[in-house]
Amino acid sequence: MSYTYEQLLESIRLKNEIQVEGLNFDPHIFDNSGVGNDVAERVNALFTCDRHAHKKIEFPALFYLPVGNFRVHIRWNLGSHFVLVKEDGVFNIVKDGKRVVENIRFAKRADYYSKKTSDGADMRTIAQDYGYGNIFIVYSNECCLKEKGQDCLFCNINATKDLYGEDQNINWKNVTEIAETVQECYGNGYNHLTVSGGFVPERREVDYYADIAEAIQDKLGVEDFNGTACVGAPEDLSVIEKYKEAGFSSIATNIEIWDEKMFEVICPGKSQMCGGRKNWIATLDRELEVFGKFHVRSTLVSGIEPKESLIEGIDTLVSKGICALPSQWYVNVGSALEGHRTPDPDWHWDVFEKTKAIYQRNGLDFWTLRNATAEPDTVIHDLLRLDEGIELVE
């Protein structure tokens, strides 16, 4: 069925609302619905995106909206006005007594999720299916900033490990496990990867990334594997060239907060361990010199700092040639800001619309953004796809 531009835009807007507000449902609603078999389960490899913990209960990763097949990530919030119900074996979403989404289709489980590496590790814990050919590799599911009491206040990486690491058997990954999983994925149509993890000592980080890249190249038999290295800002900017030399085609250093004073408060570890905000900006500038225009990405957490400051940061970075991505803040269980509220959906929608205008003014299109970002299915990705007439069906 074909839809008008206005219908598709309204569907993306509904996605924005649902992801901001989350879904209210009985945690056992998915029992006997195929989660972990035919339906892709959420693998909490780095963060969990719920308001509440649900140990030993599996949730689907996401569902598709009927209009446009836009991917919507499931975020559990018992306080949401969007209620997920199961009626006669069919899942629907109800708001204020009215159905707003009918006959939900959950994402299918990727074939490689049931496979293991040569040493017995579950491939699903090594690379998560992020859709449209993207996989997300988390080599470490913990962050050393916890030991120093300097975690970013919005982050729940360490809490996620405590909640789900043991249950889902998520541990540190070695390079052989990563390379074997990438070989399996790339042999089945995937073609972009992002490698990320929590903070580790700088020297260890660059060496480990180089080892990962070499192992992947050996397994695939190619030099270019279309990979993004997500790293912290180094004190020695010369190490940035080593990521390029290793074979990564793009790099990501997430500044998270643009406002200087708020950066210090919200991201204490990033401020104190990495030379402060000035060094994060200097890192992005150096990455741009090494990797080239729009082969550098920096995510900003959208919803903590004032909108004016956030948009200023996105505009400044994109104008330079950096893919600055507003990451819709959802207040997650276990973070220092647990219990706070993100801005309302209209606030986030305005940010996405302003960001889209900045992208289009600077020539940043969907495929370019996709090749520098881990998730190719955020609201801003969908808005670009809509304007560019790109249809992606899974």
From TrEMBL:
It holds the Pfam family Radical_SAM. One of its GO terms (molecular function) is iron-sulfur cluster binding. SUPFAM superfamilies: Radical SAM enzymes (SSF102114). Residues 129-365 form the Radical SAM core domain. The keyword Metal-binding applies. Keywords: Iron, Iron-sulfur, Metal-binding, S-adenosyl-L-methionine. The keyword Metal-binding applies. NCBIfam families: variant_rSAM. This is Nitrogen fixation protein NifB. It comes from Pseudobutyrivibrio ruminis.
